[in-house]
Design goal:
The protein has 155 residues and is an all-alpha fold. It is built from 9 helices and no strands. The termini are far apart. This is Regulatory protein RecX.
């Protein structure tokens, strides 16, 4: 990509931020990809925050809610992904509050039941192990997963 002037970059980054919620690190990386210097990048980020185009907490809430609803991710995976994007602990905590506890439990139960129906495994212990691995890799808390699996599939 050719080097953009700060004014050209500002127009482009405004469209980028309006299209969907972004975190600071995504915007910063994008601005550097335009060939801008550190001072221009920081100035533009300050402008975006001041004008309300960039908000980490709003991003974190949108990200957490979206990944939970659309991809059925658990809290652990959401937290990990937000940490990878350098989102603050407070914003992450605030984002997790967007996930309703009842919806979370119902989603976990549905994932376990759907996966169980797709398994052709007669051995109860192997079946429970496969189910737990599946939902734990989706980011659900192991203790929560195991208590549900033991409840749904007792000895």
């Amino acid at each position: 990509m050719k080097k953009l002037t700060p004014l050209q970059a500002r127009e482009k980054i405004l469209r980028y931020c309006v299209y969907q919620e972004r975190c600071h690190s995504e915007v910063r990386d994008k601005l550097y990809s335009f060939g801008l210097f550190k001072t221009d990048v920081e100035e533009l980020i300050t402008y975006l925050i001041t004008e309300g185009f960039l908000n980490e907490e709003r991003f974190a809430k949108a990200f957490a809610g979206g990944k939970f609803r659309m991809k059925k991710w658990g809290r652990l995976k959401i937290v990990h992904e937000l940490e990878q994007k350098h989102i603050s602990k407070n914003c992450i905590k605030s984002a997790l509050k967007e996930i309703d506890e009842r919806d979370y439990t119902q989603t976990l139960e549905k994932l376990v039941k759907d996966k169980s129906n797709s398994l052709d495994e007669p051995n109860l212990f192997v079946r429970r192990d496969k189910l737990s691995k599946y939902v734990i890799q989706k980011g659900y808390e192991p203790d929560l997963v195991w208590s549900l699996i033991k409840e749904l599939f007792p000895h």
